[in-house]
Recover the amino acids of this structure.
């Protein structure tokens, strides 16, 4: 317990606390700006951490990313521009609430569910980090293949407009993911000799275009109506009730997120999609999903930050970072003489506990900062819609330009935005396209790697216990969907013949 | 009054020099392309270099990971960037091989060479519960059936693959028979090893450190003629198997060909100071990376020699065109 006391003194001093607050404010700003990402925020912080002590340096990165990723839900709720692929899972519900005049509630639920999920993730880190890390080590390309297929299947099943159209959307996303150099041998595909296509279609301009631009087009055509925001004493009114009502979703989302998040590479992006679909499948009112229903928002929001906490597990325990953010953080750990690895937990446990305490503070800080953001956000809707749309369009252009600092990003945003508008007016869901773009490379990579290991034997995908389980679940879901479709068709035909 | 005039003159001259200094390269943030995934060795050292260049030259050096195609995507992106000095990159061993393997028409002549900062041999790793206790055990298993041993450690035709093939070749077998599983980099290959999907990982020590400390994997041999300074217990393959083996990975900084000479000179000067600094050596040492230095023309000679040596090894291994 000495170590814990030491950790307390490392975190609860003026320097570290100021760093945490400033980094959180910075993260809030970056996350709430459409197009700016948590990765960008972290990369900008690194040179500053150079001059800090180890614990404040790590604290800066942790609190900045936690805030930036959660704040990505704010433009999602207000403007239908999701900040991360994960928040694309529930952007329809968050934006739906805003259209009902409940922007404060939407942001409040996202933020509070995220904070609680993050705290749950902390508890998991505290008690089970080495165990969970060991579990994550069991995942090879076979398991990743099934897991990503499972995630894609979930996106199709929950999509509005039916499974068949969801599947077509997904295939379009997977096709877009094919553009560029193939991951195995670097052969150009669908590039038609354009150097810029060889780099592939990055998901951020795609996401901005397909959600935000399509929304502007729709508003412009429908003649945008001002959504009067319900004036309440506090923007978070009703959040507590929603969280209490869906407490089971909250707990399940956080628990699932903690486990999926620990898998290097995919956890953060996939978790929210899987739990959103679980929430829909188990809900008493699945038809309300996607129209501004808090249930999925609670569950997937909690998953998001729980996964964020546990995505640090493989990085800290084995030095295997799962994404760009944790890779940057691992670099900072190294630079500050805190080499990631099991000795981080045994040799210098006070450092490990200090990092955990920072997680707690960062997640608690989400609530006041989120409250502030929600309070300010209301004023956005007092701007006349035509000006607001012009401003959003500006953000779309800047955000998609900023990814690689090329006009190519803007072009991608425009083309996919118009495409999404057309698809949406024909009831095709957009979310599966985005997930296809994000997970396409992983599906392909894990498939080719697995086939190489299995020497071309497809049964290899069922030879390892976890892979076999995941595979069986995925195939069962497919079968259930097909049986239901067949039964529906049969039922329809029977009732028609009966009527004749 | 005179004093005021002097002060004004001084202030003006200060402003003037200030403006001049501002007009020098770099005036705005520089992008540093890393052709390998976040968390691998190139990423780690690239981020150290970028941070230190940022300190030296006063502008952000933003690291961008452009992965895929066994580093070809990133290397191509560096080559095709505007030669204005605002996009540079970390170029790696694989550049010595693409042409010989026939995977991409990329050679060191496509780049403005800034400097070489690192050279390291790879090492052979197995799971802690593996039956192979020594490199001799593994060598016997490979001799019995080279196709039965699944190895990984980055892309097909990369340094780790080539090191593995050379070892198999050194055992008197046909190197083309070895079974190599392509991966996106060192970290994904180690994940494959730890999960039990493959038998052997050929990566560098720093990438494997965390898993070694955790007791999940063991090092069997260093693929070089000298033991690694931080792991003197791990025998070099030359000593353990009597194979003459001198292929090592390298990492350097380069930009697209045709960058202005003064910009290359500025970068080379800054990199020279960085590589010579104790802070850099300490960080590289802590991460267990070997430090070497060669500036533009020496770097070119080094790469020419490497290109020939690797070319010979590649065709011997049956990987050439």
């Amino acid at each position: 317990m000495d170590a814990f006391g030491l950790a307390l003194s490392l975190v609860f001093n003026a320097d570290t606390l100021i760093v945490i607050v400033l980094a959180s404010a910075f993260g809030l700003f970056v996350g709430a700006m459409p197009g700016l990402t948590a990765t960008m925020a972290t990369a900008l912080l690194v040179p500053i951490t150079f001059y800090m002590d180890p614990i404040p340096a790590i604290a800066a990165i942790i609190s900045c990313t936690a805030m930036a990723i959660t704040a990505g839900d704010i433009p999602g709720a207000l403007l239908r521009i999701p900040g991360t692929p994960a928040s694309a899972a529930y952007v329809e519900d968050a934006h739906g609430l805003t259209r009902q005049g409940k922007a404060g509630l939407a942001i409040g639920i996202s933020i509070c569910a995220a904070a609680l999920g993050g705290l749950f993730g902390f508890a998991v880190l505290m008690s089970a980090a080495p165990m969970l890390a060991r579990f994550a080590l069991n995942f090879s390309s076979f398991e990743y293949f099934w897991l990503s297929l499972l995630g894609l299947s979930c996106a199709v099943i929950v999509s509005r407009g039916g499974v068949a159209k969801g599947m077509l959307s997904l295939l379009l996303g997977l096709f877009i993911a094919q553009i560029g150099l193939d991951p195995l041998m670097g052969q150009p595909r669908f590039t038609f000799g354009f150097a810029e296509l060889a780099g592939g279609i990055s998901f951020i301009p795609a996401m901005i275009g397909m959600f935000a631009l399509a929304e502007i087009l729709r508003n412009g055509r429908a003649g945008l109506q001002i959504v009067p925001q319900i004036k309440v004493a506090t923007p978070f009114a009703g959040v507590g009730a929603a969280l209490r009502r869906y407490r089971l979703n909250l707990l399940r989302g956080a628990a699932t997120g903690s486990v999926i998040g620990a898998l290097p590479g995919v956890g953060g992006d996939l978790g929210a999609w899987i739990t959103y679909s679980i929430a829909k499948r188990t809900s008493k009112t699945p038809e309300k999903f996607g129209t501004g229903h808090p249930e999925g928002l609670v569950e997937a929001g909690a998953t998001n930050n729980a996964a964020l906490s546990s995505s640090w597990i493989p990085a800290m325990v084995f030095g295997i970072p799962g994404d760009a953010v944790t890779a940057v953080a691992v670099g900072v750990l190294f630079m500050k003489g805190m080499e990631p690895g099991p000795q981080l937990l045994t040799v210098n446990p006070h450092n490990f506990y200090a990092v955990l305490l920072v997680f707690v503070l960062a997640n608690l800080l989400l609530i006041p900062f989120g409250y502030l953001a929600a309070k300010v956000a209301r004023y956005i809707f007092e701007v006349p819609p035509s000006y607001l749309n012009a401003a959003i369009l500006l953000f779309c252009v800047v955000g998609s330009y900023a990814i690689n600092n090329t006009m190519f990003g803007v072009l991608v945003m425009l083309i996919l935005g118009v495409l999404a508008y057309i698809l949406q007016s024909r009831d095709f869901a957009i979310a599966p396209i985005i997930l296809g773009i994000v997970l396409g490379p992983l599906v392909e990579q894990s498939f080719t790697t697995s086939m190489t290991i299995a020497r071309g034997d497809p049964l290899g995908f069922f030879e390892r216990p976890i892979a076999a389980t995941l595979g069986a679940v995925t195939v069962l879901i497919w079968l259930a969907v097909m049986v239901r479709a067949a039964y529906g068709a049969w039922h329809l035909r029977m009732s028609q013949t009966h009527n004749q | 009054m005179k004093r005021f005039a002097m002060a004004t003159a001084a202030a003006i001259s200060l402003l003037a020099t200030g403006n001049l200094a501002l007009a020098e390269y770099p005036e705005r943030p520089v992008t540093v392309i890393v052709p390998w995934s976040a968390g691998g060795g190139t990423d780690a050292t690239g981020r150290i270099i970028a941070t230190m260049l940022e300190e030296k030259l006063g502008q952000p050096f933003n690291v961008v990971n452009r992965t895929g195609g066994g580093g070809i995507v990133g290397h191509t992106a560096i080559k095709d960037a505007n030669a204005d000095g605002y996009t540079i990159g970390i170029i790696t061993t694989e550049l010595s091989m693409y042409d010989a393997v026939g995977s991409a028409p990329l050679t060191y002549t496509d780049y403005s060479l800034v400097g070489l900062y690192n050279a390291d041999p790879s090492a052979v790793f197995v799971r802690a519960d593996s039956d192979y206790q020594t490199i001799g055990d593994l060598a016997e298993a490979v001799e019995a059936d080279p196709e039965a041993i699944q190895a990984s450690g980055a892309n097909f035709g990369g340094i780790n693959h080539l090191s593995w093939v050379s070892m198999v070749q050194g055992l008197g077998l046909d190197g083309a028979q070895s079974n190599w599983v392509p991966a996106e980099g060192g970290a994904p290959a180690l994940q494959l090893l730890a999960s039990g999907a493959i038998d052997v990982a050929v990566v560098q020590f720093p990438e494997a450190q965390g898993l070694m400390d955790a007791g999940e994997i063991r090092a069997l041999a260093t693929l070089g003629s000298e033991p690694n300074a931080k792991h003197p217990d791990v025998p070099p393959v030359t000593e353990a198997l009597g194979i003459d083996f001198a292929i090592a990975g390298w990492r350097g900084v380069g930009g697209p060909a045709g960058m202005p000479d003064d910009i290359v000179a500025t970068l080379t000067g800054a990199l020279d100071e960085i590589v010579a600094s104790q802070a850099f050596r300490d960080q590289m040492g802590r991460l267990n990376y070997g430090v070497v230095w060669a500036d533009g023309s020496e770097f070119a000679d080094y790469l020419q020699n490497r290109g020939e040596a690797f070319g010979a090894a590649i065709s011997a291994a049956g990987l050439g065109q």
Summary: Chain B has two domains: 30-119+248-316, 123-241. The radius of gyration of chain B is 22 Å. Residues 173 and 226 of chain B are 24 Å apart (CA to CA).
